[in-house]
Amino acid sequence: MTDEERAQKVFDALDSMDLKYEVFSHPPVATVEEAKDHWDHIRGSKAKNLFVRDQKGKKHYLIVLEQDKPLNMKWFSEHFGLDKLSFASPERMEKYLGLQPGSVSPFGLINDANKEVVVYIDEEIMNEGYVNFHPNVNTMTLNMACEDFKNFLKATGNKVHFVTIHMSV
After folding, report:
1. Smallest Cα–Cα separation from 58: which of 18, 13, 97, 96?
2. Whether 61 contacts 117, CB under 8 Å
3. CATH number of 3-163
């Protein structure tokens, strides 16, 4: 699937849900640091998305938090009663979310047909009224109201937890 097809699949899904969004194009960005140069003019929270797995590789999680907030995965797994976590491989990312490294996004949930990925979203990113994520490609940023984003998450059917992630290092 091409980048254009990946993005269009997201747009089609959002349109079918009658959700409103705005799209901003920019050069490819694989990290939050690279993206910051292109985000200044876009309203709302900017997030980083971490795709992780448990030690046995049986459970997969998408952790969404504010772009500059550090995450101590040991604290996270202990606090939320999960087994030890580590980053998932690119192969797992493709299998469960249909995504490539550098383009991880909650919109990858549209590719999780079996609803296996559990999502943890730091409530802090919902504080600015709007959120920003890649539409499954790292050459665009999709901006939408938090309420529309919540409706998208509900429609995916994946288990979603809105939590407080502390600044733990």
Report:
1. 96
2. yes
3. 3.90.960.10
Confirm whether pTM is higher than 0.90: yes
Instruction: Give the residue carrying structure tokens 């292109």.
Output: 38
pLDDT of residue 58: 94
Q: Is residue 147 within 8 Å of 44, Cβ to Cβ?
A: no
Residue 138 burial (C-beta neighbours within 10 Å; 0-12, 13-18, 19+)? buried
Task: Give CA–CA dist 86/55, Å, rounded.
Answer: 7
Mention every residue, 6+ apart, whose C-beta is less than 8 A from residue 106.
Answer: 49, 62, 64, 119, 121, 133, 149, 152, 153
Residues found in the chain: 169
Place of tokens 């640091």: 33
The pLDDT of residue 119 is 98
Domain boundaries, the chain: 3-163
Residue with tokens 């504080």: 127
What six digits make up the tokens of 67? 């772009």
Give the residue among 117, 119, 113, 90 at the shortest CA–CA distance from 103. Answer: 90
pLDDT tens, 39-96?
878 999 999 999 999 999 999 999 999 988 999 999 999 999 999 999 999 999 999 9
Between CA 123 and CA 9 the distance in angstroms is 27
